[in-house]
Amino acid sequence: MVQYAHGRFDASFAALSDATRRGVLEQLGRADASITDLAGKFRMTLTGMKKHVGVLEQAGLVTTEKVGRVRTCRLGPRRLEEEAAWIERYRQLWDTRFDELDKVVEELKRKEKVDERRKRG
Amino acid sequence: MNAGREGEVVPMTNRTTVERTSERELVITRTVNAPARLVWEAWTRAELFRQWWVPKWLGMTLLSCELDVRVGGSYRLVFAHGDSEMAFFGTYREVVPHSRLVWTNDEGDGCPVTTVTFTEEDGRTLLVMHDLYPSKEALDEGGGAADAMPQTFEQLDELLVTLGAGR
Q1: B117 by DSSP, 3-state: which?
Q2: Whether complex ipTM tops 0.85
């Protein structure tokens, strides 16, 4: 498992620990929706849904915009899977690069041993 | 240095971690089973550096690699990728043999300053690579730049699948 930094990642994981919130993200992945829509879909009170959306918003997973009396929710600018995906790719890049470094260093170690044996004659 | 025993067990490869430690910083760590002076050599001698910095799966050929490892010295790597050429270049800011290397990445405005520290313990070396970006946006885009090479990562994914299957 990749180690993540504090801050936004922790907030993201907390946000995703709840089934309703994951459902909300899935829903918003299909189309933007108002808090009222979401509350209806998930059979929740408006207040309950506002809390969930608030947690998602804090984690940067969702943004909301109030127009008149309707608050519309949409997916945030940086979704968790995107960030996690590029960090994992970056990790894989470095992992294979360092595997190659290991080989180079092993070769240096081997040469050193040979040289030492030669010196000892 | 103690000469190793014959028939030594080949150590398992170590874990690479990547952590975004702040909005502008990315930290990569890895332990290498060798003393710091050897890891340093692999990092500062061009003929060794070019053997590992560009793994074959990247699908890029390293055309040239010049490393002038001293404070104020510069480096320049030129790659062929398909029909195009790409250059990576910058200047070494700090050079403390076997211990610390700092360089700039001067390809563009949003590039980080990279610090690598080599910490030896019991004959093994902990590498900590720290990229400090000029802004949060630069790091976000830097990550995005990795996505700009989808082909590369497809190849990598294939390789990883192959490696995984072999285990």
Answers
A1: strand
A2: no
